[in-house]
Amino acid sequence: YSNPGSSIAKTKMSEYSAGVYYRLYKNLGKDFYFFGEFGAAYIGSKSSSKDDQGNELSSSRMSGGQLSLTPGLSYKLLKNLHLEILIPNLVSINYSVTKSSPSNAASKQERFSFNSSLNSNGLNALGVGFRIIL
């Protein structure tokens, strides 16, 4: 983007992530299942700011990881189709390292966070999905 009246003429930011998850299902009775999903992901981003001459003013790179737990309920609608209700990222743990290099000094920042999607209104955090069994 461009910012008139500022020394920064262009900022570029890229974010990326890749992860895996594993689900365990427990039969609760006729066509109902409880599941727990355990996930792990790599997260990263990079950004840079340039002046109107194309000279780099600052840049940063972030890399880290995330662990998450997502519980839910599954109902078998058809032989190969389940309706699922879940609480995304009921618990998540994140760790990241950000390295910045502005024109005057370089810096490094480490961040650790523990998050939960639970709040006073639990319905805000619900997700709905379908599982198709091939």
Structure description:
There is one protein chain. A hairpin with a 5-residue loop joins strand 2 (32-50) and strand 3. This protein has strands at 10-29, 32-50, 56-78, 81-86, 91-100, 107-116, 127-132. The relative contact order is 0.19. It is 0% helix and 70% strand. Strands 1, 2, 3, 4, 5, 6 and 7 form a seven-stranded antiparallel sheet that branches. The protein is built from no helices and seven strands. By secondary structure, the protein is an all-beta fold.
From the structure above, extract its key features.
134 residues, 70% strand, 7 strands, 7-stranded antiparallel beta sheet, single chain, mainly beta, elongated
Q: Which helices and strands appear, and what pairs or packs with what?
A:
Blueprint: E1 10-29, E2 32-50, E3 56-78, E4 81-86, E5 91-100, E6 107-116, E7 127-132
Count the E strands. Answer: 7
The span between the termini is 45 Å
Q: What multimeric state do the chains show?
A: single chain
Largest sheet: 7 strands, antiparallel
Class derived from helix and strand content: mainly beta
Order of helices and strands: EEEEEEE
Mean pLDDT: 86
The share of residues in helices is under 10%
Question: Which spans of ≥5 residues are poorly predicted at pLDDT below 50?
Answer: none
- Tell me, what's the shape? elongated
* H/I helix tally: 0
Radius of gyration: 21 Å
Strand content: over 45%
